[in-house]
């Protein structure tokens, strides 16, 4: 646009006056859609704080679009497709957000996007929706995620278990996109690796009693629970411990939260192992850790780094797009996230603004790792192992 205006200067006198006037600051608002209530309610606040941290840094370093303020507003999707439809409608059609960080649960993302995101031409960047079903969603290139799919997490969990000499497992999964997709990837990889899946049982969320399901899982003493820390996952783990039928407990990313141990004697699940998306060691991850520590946040909170990346990427895309309009944002997002370009790290907003203003390509390297989106809006990533030690989850390391 600047090149065009400079060309017109010699021909149109009025353009000279327009160019002399100071640029008008434009404000922009992004939304956050997440389960502040429901089965991941203990996990959601730190994820939101990760996104807020990115917004705060943008504003502290000059703001967006010629000095305008970037705002973030949230809505409760309750980890539920129906609730998220109403929440996304409010964010998009009442609050008028440019784009969304979220949802968190996959059903939440799909429900909110299909009902309001697609009709509104709104980009969604989820930091936590891991179900493989998101890959095949018909989304007009509007849905992205900054965390790897469970197609990867399931494979890595299988490799981890087999590497520990665990040759048989019993699996129970919450009966939704997340649970079913995760279980399918795990079971396939585990059996292909030579392991035996002694039982594979779906369960419905929000029940008070899962003893019947547990009775169908006792063919193996190694119990894998793919569910949520604030809901069925916690209840199943507690009742499994009470039954005394299992010796090894394994959980997916939805189980990684302090709420999981409510009503459970921590010593009874000492050594429980789990998986979730992680971040590679390096300058980008360390910068984010330092920024989060300085802000008093838990840098290692589940999916908080990925939420920071989602919000920072959206800010970069808005700046690249040159306006607070939704049109063109998806293309701009791909441009700022992918090579080639000068590397931008977490917190480097002022540097990024300057490069974008100069017309220089940038490539954001995130707190959660590389963010080169594929055609489906997915990324590669790493999966880490965690274990309960002394009553809380502790990171063990990357699963190779």
CATH architecture label of the largest domain: 3-Layer(aba) Sandwich
Question: What overall form do the CA principal axes indicate?
Answer: globular
Say what the CATH topology of the largest domain is.
Answer: Rossmann fold
Largest sheet: 7 strands, mixed
Count structural domains: 2
Runs in which pLDDT lies below 50 for 5 or more consecutive residues are 1-23
- In round numbers, the mean pLDDT is 93
Number of strands: 15
What kind of assembly state do the chains in view correspond to? single chain
Strand content: 15-25%
Describe the strand arrangement of the main beta sheet, using strand numbers. 7-6-8-9-10-14-15
Describe the protein.
The chain has 400 residues and is of the alpha/beta class. It has 2 domains: 171 residues, Response regulator (Rossmann fold, 3-Layer(aba) Sandwich), CATH 3.40.50.2300; 147 residues, Rossmann fold (3-Layer(aba) Sandwich), CATH 3.40.50.2300. It is globular, with a radius of gyration of 22 Å. The N terminus is likely disordered.
Strand-helix topology:
Elements: H1 2-9, H2 13-20, E1 28-34, H3 44-60, E2 70-76, H4 81-94, E3 99-102, H5 106-120, E4 123-126, E5 143-145, H6 150-163, E6 168-174, H7 177-192, E7 196-203, H8 211-215, E8 222-226, H9 232-243, E9 248-251, E10 273-278, H10 283-294, H11 304-321, H12 329-337, E11 342-344, H13 349-357, E12 362-366, E13 369-370, E14 382-389, E15 392-398
Parallel strand pairs: 1-2, 1-3, 3-4, 4-5, 6-7, 6-8, 8-9, 9-10, 11-12
Antiparallel strand pairs: 10-14, 12-13, 14-15
